[in-house]
Amino acid sequence: MARNSATKKLITDYYQIRNTNHETRNMEYAIETFSLTKIFSDWWGRDKVYAVNDLNLQIRYNEVFGLLGPNGSGKTTTLKMLLGLLYPTKGKTIVLGGDGADPKINARIGFLPEESYLYRYLNARETLDFYGRLFGLPAKVRKMRIEALLDMVGLKAVASRPVGTFSKGMARRIGLAQALINDPDLLILDEPTTGLDPIGTRQIKDLILNLAKRGKTVLLCSHLLADVEDVCDRIAILYGGKIQSEGKVKDLLQQTGKRQITTDAISDTAVEKIKQIVRNEQADCVVTSPMDKLETFFIKTVAAAQQQAQPTSGAISTTQIGGFLAPDTPVENILDKLVSPMESLRTAPVLQEPSEPPKTEQVGPVETSQTEPDERATGVLRKLTEPAKPSQPKPVVRDEKVETKPVEHKAAQQEQTKKSIIDQLTGRSSPQNEDRDLGPDQTDKSQTGDSGDA
Amino acid sequence: MDPTKPISPRQETQAMHSIWAVATNTLKQALRMKIAAVFIILLIVLLPAMGLSMTGDGTLKGRLQTFVSYGLSLTSFLLCLLTIIVSIYSLTSDIKQKQIYTVITKPIRRFQLLLGKLLGVILLDAALLILFSAIIYAITIYTPKYLGADGAELTRVDNEFFTARTGLTPPEADVRREVLDTYNNLEKTGQLDQIFRDVSHKKIIADLTKRKQLEKRAAAVGQNLLWEFNNVNLSDPNQSLFIRFKYDVSVNPPDLHVYGRWVVGDYRQIRYGARIQTPFHTFDRKDLIRTFHEIEVPADAVAADGYLAVEFINVPLNNTVVIFPLADGLEVLYKADTFGANFLRAVILIMLRLIFLACLGILTSTFLSFPVAILLCLVIFSTAIVSGFVIESFEYISAELSGVYYYAVKPIIQLLPRFDRLNPSKFLVPARLLSWSLLARVAAIMICIKASLLLLLALLIFSYREIARIVV
């Protein structure tokens, strides 16, 4: 108990110092935890499990942060404490400059729990309507957003079916839609891609990147390492409730001892020349053709089937982003903002509103569902036809060039080498295997993660 | 954004929206998860079947009384069960199936979630109660027409069933002085120990009081009994009064009947020898003992200031002392309201009961799992149904454990609602007025105090508990 009160005092002191420049603190971090500790005790009150142990986490605004770790490492417990679903045994959390259980803060958060816990008896549309009403969205805005989100997650055709009859992946999509209905400033996603097909997974990744582009903060909690690697700016790896490693994905994964060159198809003589140059530097050199990622191949195949309009009773996957969430469409028009109780949207500390003149949301979903797919489709096509390019939807430089960049070591492989069978059990092993199959010699890495020129 | 900012009207409506959203969701849950369907089908089938099959004692009045009594009791009982189940299921399933994770992380406060659930249950109750009481009312009203009852029977039913009568009972006679005298007398003569062996002082006094009061309500052969009432406020001068009585006797007459002469009117005219202004009505009757009978008296017997005297004369034809039992031996009844209005209040009485149970269900669901909460609520519910019996039996055994009883058990029992004493059938069957003031008193005690306490406790527990923690 004495230790407890001492910690409390430390924290109070800390606050008093921090509160002197309250504003800068608010500007700095979207999520901050101070010696966050959660002990689950048994029936007699004896300490049993340290789920989270002295966790200090700082997530900046407009950052995509990945919280990694094997099962039972305290990821979900941390999220639950951030949201006030669990109370910390010790320590404190600050979310968006306030308490994560405060409705005013909640209005700016989108949360997807580790499973989509839905009311089985409601249909998809009613489910979203219910959550929209909890946010106090006016009926008009609510209706438009629901349609846009249903479009986005590809469940419009089954929108009047009770969600109790949905498959896990479809339920996941509705879960994601409910997390986005308030156009949150902070998105907390716990294992967002479990149960989703690769297209859904890809869509979520694209969505995360797009939201980040719009100035949103994303906290992603996952053990699907490939997903995390694709989208996160920074990651922290938890084990036993403690941070084992933390930093920028690039910094953590870059192999400074190696370099990688990617070229278009060049002649064998040119290859020989290059090898000669490398040998002159007293270094080794391996030359292979990069392989498609299985994800890309899969998306290509399904896209082809969809173009032939083959029937399906499941979700219609598209990689388009819902109207009001798309990066180049403004969220709301001014009228919507005035009638919406979520003033928070405007007062978000680092909200980068798009610079275009605001369009009305009335035309938003309709228009985007027509104009967006074009742009998105070309984006997808580009990705499909040019697999060796970064997956991020940023302009790709297509000049004929020899790109020199550091070779990145896959997180999955690091894990693989470090740990044994247990880790295969903890993370879903398929993406890891997939990556290993694709390129154990690390010649295809130019398509993943941040490209060196980012 | 600024936490110090006062709550704006928009935030208030936002709070209402959240509560309303949860309430409608709870309604949908109850209706679509087929919990309510079972009860609805059961009642829709049973009520008309009861209307057709129940005959009571064979008379039209008996038939109506039986149907209303059983119909309302069944509706009330089933809705009570439904309320307990729905109010507990709604929150515990949210917690167990974890939908609450996505709900409570939205801008809704925990108390709003609870109030929303409560509102949903109450709305469901109100809708079903209105539906079923309308069915019962319709069947009751149309039964006489359906059966083609004759004029005499219709008049009787109109006077004694389709009405709401208020009853005046004579006040208990003040016998404390006489009791004390008798006690002292017995003590002085040393008979006390002979008559009451090993009995506490309190019990002796109670026993003597009862005897003295019975003496006041007993008439030997040739004697008379006089009761005076002061607040007989008839709303309609053309209507009738009813004297409802029950004879008890010291020696059973051979044919179990008692002769009696009843005189009803303003007795002060005789006592003070004034000029006769209001008439006296005299009835000579022969009635079966130990059953209720009613004498219809024209309203003009009541004096202008609401005074009325009723006199019973034990005529010498009898060979026994006639006693009017203490609690319900004699009453003056007169119409105070219509059957419809009384029925409405009876339905509201059931509604109050349902609201109480909904609060109880919500409270238990904040800290117990579904099966445990159901069990606890059913125990409380069934105890409340027989609360009178429970209290009596505790009073009886309390002699040995009075300390424990008065400080531990009694306060808990006092917290129970008295469902048995507030049974709507008790009012509708004898066509007795269930007054608004009684209803208001019940509402104040059962809802404003007891149910509010439960709800407050529920809000406290739910506001401070960890949502994500699984409880057993």
Describe this structure in words.
The complex is a heterodimer of chains A (454) and B (472). In chain A, 41% of the residues lie in helices and 17% in strands. Chain A contains 18 helices and 12 strands. Chain A has a 6-stranded mixed beta sheet, with helices on both faces. In chain A, strands 1, 2, 3 and 5 form a 4-stranded antiparallel beta sheet that branches. The longest helix of chain A is centred in the last third of the chain and has 22 residues, at 364-385. Chain B has 2 domains: 9-163 and 339-464, no CATH class; 219-335, Jelly Rolls. Chain B contains 16 helices and 11 strands. Chain B has helices spanning 9-32, 35-53, 60-96, 99-104, 110-147, 151-160, 176-189, 192-195, 201-216, 268-271, 339-365, 370-385, 387-397, 402-415, 425-428, 436-464, and strands at 164-168, 218-219, 224-229, 240-246, 248-249, 257-265, 281-288, 292-298, 308-313, 322-323, 330-337. In chain B, the strands form 3 sheets. Chain B has a 4-stranded antiparallel beta sheet with strand order 1-11-4-8. In chain B, helix 2 runs antiparallel to helix 3 (60-96), helix 2 runs parallel beside helix 5 and helix 11 (339-365) packs antiparallel against helix 12. The radius of gyration of chain B is 28 Å and the shape is globular. The chains are: A alpha/beta (454), B alpha+beta (472). The A-B interface holds A 80, 83-87, 98, 102-104, 106-107, 109, 111, 113, 115, 117-119, 121-122, 126, 130-131, 133-136, 175, 178-179, 182, 341, 343-344, 347 and B 1, 3, 10-11, 13-14, 17-18, 20-22, 25, 28-29, 32-33, 97-109, 466-469.
